[in-house]
Design a protein that fits this description.
Dimethylsulfoxide Reductase, domain 2; Barwin-like endoglucanases; eight-stranded mixed sheet; 28 strands; globular
């Protein structure tokens, strides 16, 4: 007998907990359907819902409280597309944003319509790391975070690749695929990287000059560039700026931007020309050079910053009145503590000198990584790079982006690659790329949520002891607005008017916009972010906990739901002390009270397992590309692009978009980093020089679907320009970070003070909170192990040091409350001598929990994170920030 016919083939059912059908917030869907029936146009229907403040606030208040109802796929896509088209026409493409990895389909869709892409992850370009002979996996858990790449890593190891994992978590999955593991304390990785650079510079440059390394340094880095030295009152010197052609009276259109070197053949200063000029890498040993003491900042001393005296070879150009200069390479050796005979200053005696910054023994006092292991790994890395001519790589993970001073860590890692001639796979500006709006997610949250209202100190508290007061009185949002005005950082929305209207201006749209900026009739959106015309309107998320860094008060400001930490309950929080202290920005308008519910629409491409599906207005469930398991992100974006194109035919058509993008700092020039603010009359606004580049881009919105379906351009552009190790910018000089440097974890005691009294009279201490990632605990841990202690004790646990516990009068097992930007958390104190003073540890809430379950970033916006493109450092990741929390006894009885 023939077997019974099977059912028609179809998609396999999704795994438990995964959504297949779209979900839309019921209150919103009901009102949209009513307007759709009445007006017979999706775009007009969406505009009608948004035009009624009461209807808008009603569905915003329902966010995060349930109420999602199942909808048909076409209807959900139409609603989202209608919101996009309406927002494009009414406010502009820069009021729409999407959080995606750089190579995701959603990023391509948003780039096509001109919307900013908040790059959540920049993938390593090419297969350099998989083909490397030696690989450092730094701060990442490859088998968990990048499962596909884990297989490539296993194959690379079979081919002979050595893998060293670096990270504080000994149980991370990446350690299982490593030959060796180094475990620095959280936030101290930069000391390890600096000490590894010390070994490389000493053994492969100072003691024995590697021809391959030296040639790469001359040809592809800024190490031969001349740097001026500024004399101080005590006779010592401090690094100044690059010596440029204009400083020597050389003519030329770009003389003010072109750094100069000393030509080996002529012994004279010259603008380097490939194939013609042979730059001098170091002035050491030359007849015209003498030794001079240079002061360099150090931040590793407990409780204070200081300076070290190091000697560098110097020469004076153009006679007795000419500038005193040295090379970046000579300054770098001084920074890393690599001694050379007959140079003055304080130098380490050997690798075992633990008191002098830069040595392997010194890093051991900060990281606990044995000095011998540091020396061995650095030596192996450099030897392999020398023999293979640069076939070594460093693969960084999310752990390198979390500390407040993550940018300094990334610079020390890039210095290792540059010194050893290894490719840097991080994103960089490329020639011929069309202007696209990209923005750092942490900066986006900072600007458009209430976090900037919690600043309790101006940014000059981060300044170097050698600083000159360049940041005095500036808050973080002032620095952000200044970086936007001068073109150092991409900040969106750009202007307080629709860029489609600005681009469609009769005549020269760029000249008209500049003229309006000078007269004040056109403003920057970031200078008044609380004004409704400057709000972000539509946001699409592809991450499972993308809203985690926002914090509870940020959720209230952005989504209009939830109780923020700025309420009376959180009034005593250290992170919220800024309002109490009365610190206000200089150049940015601050409206009171804080706005609630900026976003018109929040779209999630996750599913039931995504924390961002809870507050979303529309959930378009997608899977990770597995055939037959549901729609992928590409399917969702394809449908959305086609529907946007269809709706745009009657509402948008072809428009001209005025796009503001940061200054191009990745070419062979070294643009001056002098702070010249045209807003305050220091210069005139000139696009591409003293303000962002302005470009008019023609966008055919009716053809978005066709353009999205076309083959994507090559997304792996080659890096251009030089690799800069000297960051010549006023803010970098002010913070003491013009050269690679180690800055320890955020000193919250120095920023927020020591123990004080809370609102109920109980003592409290500000601390730095560490929150391990729990997203994948279902795969790597037993959840019952975490839940059962919580059930027995009634809450979670907060690990703190004996000193902090004594300061607030608690013992092991007592209830404490932690107050931060995300609200108040009550937990049991777990007092442990393994916890350093000023640091607490708590488990982050489950990934399926509500948004805002972990604190927003730290109490300050670090100014140097706004200079990522300056000096060719495109894609430099700054941290989401150490989470600053105030811990005290509960202010009331806990039921």
């Amino acid at each position: 007998m023939s077997p019974a016919p099977s059912e028609a083939p179809g998609p396999a059912p999704p795994p438990d907990g995964r959504l297949r059908d779209p979900y839309v917030r019921g209150v919103l869907l009901e009102r949209y359907r009513e307007a759709r029936r009445r007006l017979r146009d999706p775009v007009l229907a969406w505009a009608d819902v948004q035009g009624d403040p009461e209807r808008r606030r009603r569905y915003q208040r329902a966010r995060g409280t349930g109420g999602l109802v199942r909808a048909e796929w076409d209807e959900a896509v139409e609603l989202v597309a209608a919101a996009y088209v309406h927002t494009l026409g009414a406010y502009g493409p820069d009021r729409i944003a999407g959080l995606f990895p750089a190579d995701a389909p959603g990023a391509r869709l948003h780039t096509l319509i001109g919307a900013p892409v908040l790059v959540s992850e920049e993938p390593a370009r090419g297969d350099d790391w998989a083909d490397a002979a030696y690989l450092l996996v730094w701060g990442g858990d490859l088998p968990v975070a990048r499962a596909g790449d884990a297989r490539r890593l296993a194959r690379a190891r079979y081919r002979g690749q050595k893998v060293v994992a670096v990270g504080p978590d000994a149980r991370a999955g990446g350690t299982r695929l490593a030959d060796e593991v180094l475990h620095p304390h959280p936030g101290t990785d930069g000391a390890l990287a600096l000490a590894m650079g010390h070994v490389v510079l000493k053994e492969f440059f100072a003691d024995r000059a590697s021809p391959f390394f030296a040639e790469h340094a001359r040809r592809s880095t800024d190490l031969p560039f001349l740097v001026t030295l500024e004399e101080r009152a005590d006779g010592t010197y401090a690094p100044g700026t690059f010596l440029r052609a204009a400083d020597l009276g050389r003519p030329g259109e770009h003389a003010g931007s072109r750094a100069v070197v000393l030509d080996e053949a002529t012994g004279r200063a010259a603008v380097p020309e490939p194939g013609v000029t042979v730059p001098v890498l170091s002035l050491y040993g030359r007849e015209v050079a003498a030794g001079a003491e240079v002061l360099l900042p150090r931040f590793d001393a407990v409780g204070r910053a200081g300076a070290v005296r190091r000697g560098v070879p110097v020469t004076r150009l153009g006679g007795a009145s000419g500038p005193l200069v040295t090379t970046v390479f000579d300054l770098l050796l001084a920074r890393y503590g690599v001694a050379r005979p007959e140079l003055p200053g304080h130098w380490p005696q050997s690798y075992a000198d633990a008191d002098t910054p830069g040595t392997p023994a010194w890093q051991e006092t900060h990281t606990s990584v044995p000095a011998a292991a540091c020396v061995r790994v650095a030596r192996e890395f450099a030897r392999t790079a020398e023999r293979s001519r640069g076939r070594c790589a460093i693969l960084t993970g999310d752990g390198t982006r979390r500390p407040f001073h993550a940018d300094t860590l990334h610079r020390t890692l890039r210095a290792l690659l540059a010194l050893t001639g290894c490719p840097d796979t991080s994103p960089a500006p490329s020639e011929g790329s069309p202007p696209a709006r990209r923005m750092d997610p942490a900066t986006y949250w900072y600007l458009h949520t209430g976090r900037r209202r919690h600043e309790s100190r101006p940014t000059d508290v981060l300044a170097s002891p050698l600083g000159r007061g360049r940041l005095t009185g500036l808050t973080g949002v002032d620095c952000l607005a200044l970086a936007a005005r001068t073109g150092w950082a991409p900040v969106y929305p750009s202007f307080d008017r629709n860029p489609l209207d600005l681009g469609g201006t009769f005549g020269d749209a760029v000249s008209r916009a500049v003229a309006d900026l000078r007269t004040g009739t056109l403003g920057l959106a970031c200078e008044n972010p609380d004004a409704p015309e400057n709000w972000p309107r539509v946001l699409m998320l592809a991450g499972s906990e993308a809203l985690g860094p926002v914090g509870e008060d940020g959720i209230r400001c952005l989504l209009g739901t939830g109780a923020g930490a700025g309420t009376e309950a959180g009034a005593g929080a250290g992170a919220g002390a800024g309002a109490a202290n009365g610190i206000r920005p200089r150049d940015v308008t601050r409206c009171e009270p804080a706005p609630e519910g900026k976003l018109d629409l929040l779209v999630s491409l996750g599913g039931a397992e995504s924390a961002d599906s809870c507050p979303a207005d529309v959930v378009l469930p997608t899977v990770g590309g597995q055939p037959g398991r549901g729609r992928t992100e590409f399917d969702a974006c394809t449908a959305l692009a086609e529907r946007i194109g269809a709706l745009a035919a009657g509402h948008l058509g072809v428009r001209e978009d005025l796009v503001a993008t940061p200054l191009p700092h990745g070419d062979a020039t070294a643009p001056p980093g002098t702070v010249l603010d045209w807003r305050h009359g220091a210069c005139t606004p000139v696009p591409g020089r003293t303000m962002p580049q302005l470009t008019v881009v023609v966008r055919d919105y009716t053809a978005v679907g066709t353009a999205f379906a076309a083959p994507a351009p090559d997304g792996k552009p080659s890096r251009i320009g030089l690799r800069h190790l000297f960051l010549d910018h006023d803010w970098a000089h002010e913070l003491g970070e013009s050269l690679p440097v180690y800055r320890p974890p955020l000193d919250v005691r120095g920023l927020l003070g020591t123990a004080r009294l809370g609102p109920g009279g109980q003592p409290e201490v500000p601390v730095r909170r560490l929150t391990p990632h729990e997203l994948w605990s279902v795969h790597s841990a037993h959840p019952d192990d975490l839940f059962l202690p919580a059930l027995m004790s009634g809450c979670g646990h907060l690990w703190l040091s004996p000193g902090d516990a004594e300061a607030i009068g608690v013992t092991d097992g007592d209830l404490v409350e932690a107050v931060g930007p995300d609200g108040v958390t009550v937990a049991r104190a777990a007092v442990s001598s393994r916890m350093p003073a000023g640091t607490v540890y708590t488990r982050r809430a489950s990934h399926a929990g509500p948004p805002g379950s972990r604190a927003a970033a730290g109490p300050l916006l670090k100014p140097t994170r706004l200079l990522a493109g300056h000096g060719g450092l495109g894609g430099l990741a700054g941290g989401t920030g150490d989470e600053v929390t105030v811990v005290r006894r509960p202010g009331q009885e806990v039921e």
